[in-house]
Amino acid sequence: MRILSGIQPSGAFHIGNYFGMMEPSIRLQDEGEAYYFIADYHALTTVQDGETLRQNCFEAALDFLACGLDPVKSVFFRHSAVPEVTELSWLLSTVTPMGLLQRCHSYKDKVDKGITPSHGLFAYPVLMAADILIYDSDIVPVGKDQKQHVEVTRDIAIKMNEIFGEGLLKLPKPQIRESMAKVTGLDGQKMSKSYGNTIDIFGAEKQLRKKIMKIKTDSVEVDHPKDPEASIIYELYQLFANESEVEAMANDFRNGGVGYGDFKKRLWEAYWEYFAPMRARREELLANRDHVDEVLKQGAERARELATGVLGRVRHAMGL
Ligand code: ADP
Ligand code: TRP
After folding, report:
1. Residue 193: active-site member
2. Which of 50, 231, 285, 305 is the most exposed place for a label (fewest CB within 10 A)?
3. Domains parsed from the chain with CATH numbers
4. What is the Cα 279 distance to its own chain's centre?
5. Which residue has a Cα nearest atom 9 of ligand 2?
6. Ligand number, closest to the Cα atom of 12
7. Is 173 one of the catalytic residues?
């Protein structure tokens, strides 16, 4: 089974990225042949400063490796280190119906958020289809918001196979962990960089603590019973605490007598402890920049070999 996923290096990763995409991907690396990449070609649709993009890519690699991506088990690389994918993207675009792209939510959502509506942004799902199809991928672990893109990938592959021969491209399946499909942000909306409501995986202790301690709550008094299910604090706590700790918090909510400040403190401590081993590993990697560069270089070589073979197959079928 071949597993493939990518993540854009468009800023610091948050716990929504972690539980929605990174952690499931890392877990899957024991179950098949995993290919994971930092989607820098995609990030060009929003990051338009060379130095920033280079720095973001390096940080993204650090974060992913620190969180447990094992470059011995998985092939880990930068998207742009396999330029063959842009050729496949063009080949796919010649069979992609306009209507299919016009139905994609993410383009409209991004334009609504103020991102310039470029052709690249509109055609993004075709490049994403090429990303997936060029490795003959079986499974694509992503958060729920990417599900439509994997469906578009399947539609494009089906069309290619109808025109140029059955079996030419393998049909991938999205894999979404329903319990983590949507991690809630500090303001109750979906956690997202663009809403400024994130808790980052890594960062300065003081600022992160402050963010958690400032979560907005209702004005139910300390002594009164509270509903855990209505609280973001309780919701986020479940990501980090063990079963008995979660149960204890739920009871304290229902029984009254404990204030929100105390619950936030418990959330902070559980979160900070959860990422402690990852922080330590990140420090080690940071001191060994060459190792990170070498991992990406070797990953790119392995990825490129596979990609070149699949691209050759498609070129031939299409008459090139
Ligand atoms: P953002 O919304 O912060 O810009 P991205 O769109 O770059 O995040 O998402 C990167 C990956 O993380 C995708 O696979 C996406 O589905 C996943 N992801 C992002 N936010 C969340 C969330 N709040 N809950 C679950 N998964 C998420
Ligand atoms: N579009 C994805 C995101 O914004 C990133 C991505 C690019 C991706 N290519 C991919 C994810 C291929 C899975 C497979 O998060």
Report:
1. yes
2. 50
3. 2-181+289-318 (3.40.50.620), 203-274 (1.10.240.10)
4. 19
5. 128
6. 1
7. no
